[in-house]
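Before surveying the methods themselves, let us examine one representative protein, pairing a chain with its fold in token form.
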Amino acid sequence: MNRMPDVPAQWLTHAQAICETGESLFKRGYVHGSTGNISVKLDVPSGTGYLMTPTDACLGQLQAHRLAFLDHNGQQLFGDPVSKAQRLHRAIYEADPAASAVIHTHSHYLVLLTLLGVWRVDSILPFITPYQVMKVGRVPLIDYALPGDEQVVLAVSEEIKQAASKNELLRAVMCDRLGPQVWHQSLSQAQALLEELEQTARLWIDGRSLIEPLSPAQIKALRQRFLLR
């Protein structure tokens, strides 16, 4: 693919933000080797486009001009070959129009949680902290499949659509044995959500699953106070 041509400054800002986010996640152990991927949705003349990390790229060593750019149909226009997860990212954007950034990592404690056994399939962790309720919400488990498998794409899309039909805000799923997919209205918000989710998994595992969850009344009070769905 060709190098990034002259593009609006806003796109370059997003590209740099992806590189900085990848480096931060890599340095703090949220990803290792060439695992994980990041994307952002862009406004383009045709309507929508996407910047995404290339396949087999180390998130700690990303270069803005080598990020993959896709048009609204998922056709790559420039950059290094795009990650095999591009179809899943685009499916998330399609299912949740408010999403503008998606992050996937192989975060240690979240992957370990699936190996040890999640709390429930429809919610991998009980609500144990206020910020988990406020910033993360429910996180369903997606059955194991080969990385990049269309089965995962369909399952994640269906989870988002089902949540929307119940007026429930869903911003993360956990792929069994692989890692979380999180999305939000900005890259910084998606990163914060990921960090809160990983920390919650760590607390739950370190507590040997003996932590008392918040009560339904406490959860309801948080949702009412902070206008949460």
The longest helix spans residues 187-206. The chain has a mean pLDDT of 93.
